[in-house]
Specification:
With 93 residues, the chain is mainly alpha-helical. The chain contains four helices and two strands. The radius of gyration is 18 Å and the shape is extended.
Length: 93
């Protein structure tokens, strides 16, 4: 993913991203490489440590979601999907 793509996805300013991204790079979770055609472009890759961190952060929430979905009644999964789709910004399509 490029820095520009990440900024577009997160919808934050370059300044807001810069400090956090620097910490992730300095901590060894993200590896940054200059683009092959345009050296100003920065491509971001997760390192092995970054992937491990991402899984560790996502797992508790994934379990909570799975448990909540188990407790819902018939048709709830479709309702949740429609709700989440409705929460997206119109220009996210």
């Amino acid at each position: 993913m490029t820095v520009a793509d990440l900024l577009d996805t997160l919808r934050i300013t370059k300044q807001s991203l810069a400090r956090v991204l620097k910490q992730l790079i300095d901590s060894g979770y993200i590896h940054q490489v200059a683009g092959p055609e345009d050296r100003r472009q920065r491509k971001l890759y997760t390192t092995k440590e970054g992937k491990t961190l991402a899984r560790a952060l996502a797992e508790p929430q994934s379990w909570r979601i799975a448990e909540a979905m188990e407790k819902t009644g018939p048709g709830a999964r479709e309702l949740v999907k429609r709700f989440l789709a409705g929460m997206k910004n119109a220009d996210d399509n």
